[in-house]
Design a protein that fits this description.
This is Helix-turn-helix domain-containing protein. The protein is α+β, with helices and mostly antiparallel strands. It has one domain (14-107): Winged helix-like DNA-binding domain superfamily/Winged helix DNA-binding domain (Arc Repressor Mutant, subunit A, Orthogonal Bundle). It has helices at residues 14-22, 27-37, 42-49, 54-66, 88-91, 94-107, and strands at 40-41, 70-75, 81-86. It has a 3-stranded antiparallel sheet.
Length: 109
C-alpha cells in the first residue's frame, strides 16, 4: 500500500510524538547530562549547561518530569536537597541519544 505525502499527517506519527517530548532548547541537553552522569543535582545541571537560567532549567525539568522522562527526588533536610535522574522511560531514549552523538561525531567538522 503506497502512502502519498498529501495523505500523510505528520502529527499522527511516532516521530512527531517523540519530537514533542524532546524538542526545546535544553531538553535534549538535560537528557544527555542525566544519561552521562546518572543522578544529578539542580545546581550541577545548571553549571554543566552553563547558558541556562534558573527559571528555564526549573520549567524544563518540570516538563520532562510531567512527560515521565525525568524523576525528581526531594530529600527532607536543611538545606533542601533535590536530585534528578532518568526514569525507565527516559532511559529508553538512551539509544536514540547515543546514535545522535555518534552521528554528530562522524559528521562535525
Amino acid at each position: 500500500m503506497n502512502c502519498h505525502i498529501s495523505e500523510a499527517q505528520l502529527g499522527e506519527t511516532g516521530f512527531s510524538y517523540t519530537l514533542s517530548l524532546i524538542s526545546g532548547k535544553y531538553k535534549m541537553t538535560i537528557l544527555y547530562a542525566l544519561m552521562e552522569f546518572g543522578v544529578v543535582r539542580f545546581n550541577e545541571l545548571q553549571r554543566y549547561i552553563g547558558t541556562i537560567s534558573y527559571k528555564t532549567l526549573s520549567s524544563t525539568l518540570k516538563q520532562l518530569e510531567a512527560d515521565g522522562l525525568v524523576h525528581r527526588e526531594e530529600y527532607p533536610q536543611i538545606p533542601p536537597k533535590v536530585e534528578y535522574s532518568l526514569t525507565g522511560r527516559g532511559r529508553s531514549l538512551v539509544p536514540v541519544l547515543d546514535l545522535m552523538c555518534e552521528w554528530g561525531e562522524q559528521h562535525r567538522r
